[in-house]
Amino acid sequence: MNDSANIHSEPAALNAPISRRNALIMGAGAVAAVTILPALGLGAHNTSAANAASYPARKGAHDMDTITMKDGAKIYYKDWGTGRPVVFCHGWPLSADAWDAQMLFLANHGYRVIAHDRRGHGRSSQTFTGNDMDTYADDLSTLIETLDLKDITLVGHSTGGGEVARYVGRHASPRIAKAVLISAVTPMMLKTDDNPEGAPREIFDGIRAGVLADRAQFYHDFSMPFYGYNKPDAKISQGVRDSFWQQGMMGSLASQYQCIKAFSETDFRGDLAKFTFPTLVMQGDGDQIVPITVGSLRTAKLVKGATLKVFPGAPHGLCTTLADQVNAELLAFIQA
């Protein structure tokens, strides 16, 4: 184990009484599961057993865990399944829960899946310092080293894609076998003299203003373009919008505010040049948050040998709205 990190288990509240409201929610969840479980790969274990058998079950696994960073920040992570590891890095302002559809699908196909809440997001410590890409990458490195993960497929969405890139550039870890960048903020979001393809600063100043003025309302509104629900033919899921809002509001205002600078102003071009392993770049060309011309089209050119997959009309949050298609692409890439 890394001397600089400690793992803590958080016991579940198993003895809490179940209210009538909670019972109804649990029942509704069970009904919903009947319709979504096939899409998540339950029952499709024909390829999973052999993969899992190659990787022994880990010892001391917990349902809820945190790892303590060098500065004392506690990073929450989820760790499901056994097999070759797949590590996920989420987007802003979300949490590890944004990856649930991918995690369950891959776990049911014989992979060990790990996703953490970035510092200041979700259930991790609400830090006022360290809300920058270098520290995010160092936190990811500590998680990977502490869990002693090897032969990893590293997956990042949006800001998480930047986290993946900075980790590769900063740590050059031999533990990484493959990488996937989905709707990533790479190579650089902000328009500057040497990055004329970027977006104007006014866009990010608008995000900052919205978060400061009324974060709760801003996240509620932001979920519409995030998932493409503002399009005339969109089938809106209020549940997905509520989940986005809940994940965002779990995080720290200060950390999320500072993260806007991190995801918009960090230059990842040097990091992308250090990718020496198979890399899949995916994005929808209907993305209203990170335009594909700013993100993936440029990223794929900067990563040597990268494979580019474009989803026609798909929004920024395609891991949720097109989960079955994203899952299929991930599985095929990992198995290749």
UniProtKB/TrEMBL annotation:
Gene3D superfamilies given in the database record: alpha/beta hydrolase (3.40.50.1820)
Pfam families attached here?
Answer: Abhydrolase_1
Domain of life (superkingdom)? Bacteria
Protein name, UniProt field: Non-heme chloroperoxidase
From which source organism is this entry?
Answer: Capsulimonas corticalis
Q: Which family does it belong to?
A: Belongs to the AB hydrolase superfamily. Bacterial non-heme haloperoxidase / perhydrolase family.
